[in-house]
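Quick entry between incubations.
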Amino acid sequence: SQKIEQNSEALNIQEGKTATLTCNYTNYSPAYLQWYRQDPGRGPVFLLLIRENEKEKRKERLKVTFDTTLKQSLFHITASQPADSATYLCALDQASGTYKYIFGTGTRLKVLA
Amino acid sequence: NAGVTQTPKFQVLKTGQSMTLQCAQDMNHEYMSWYRQDPGMGLRLIHYSVGAGITDQGEVPNGYNVSRSTTEDFPLRLLSAAPSQTSVYFCASSARGLGGELFFGEGSRLTVL
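Done. Structure below.
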């Protein structure tokens, strides 16, 4: 079956360290993969997009990698801050050219001061 | 810009009642969609639309109805509410083209008794 897996357990890290979140998928061939941040009681907010022909994308302290052979994306937050504490969701298009976005269940990140 | 606006924010229904969740966007986006978010299940796509007059089903369409008479509005109708429809509902929109960054509303929390 098709599915997206993110670590369902919360990730706790110390302030200043790099947080690494994982998104694995099976039986999809997405054209691109997106990462979103969601705070409690709020809607998800878009962070980064990476296309299938891109290996890595950066935006300020954020970095995303995309390995279509492993069917995996890694999301890194460098020099993490308590304000980075949130749930992070990955999403991909169910099939190239469609607008059926499928989301993972998210990983809750807590950055400890 | 208001972005994506959802109403109501909270609603309590009795089993068998019907209601409509409203979603409006002011970004002239062609694509609009409805998701439900449940603990441990992540965001699941209910219905989506790629333009006025065009709608299609997502992963979990049963018990829900949509229409898209204008570019701005995409209401979600619950025909006969069931306790299994207790959830947080998010509306999202996106401009056409590669990438398709989703803009989410703040959510509507629905409880069916």
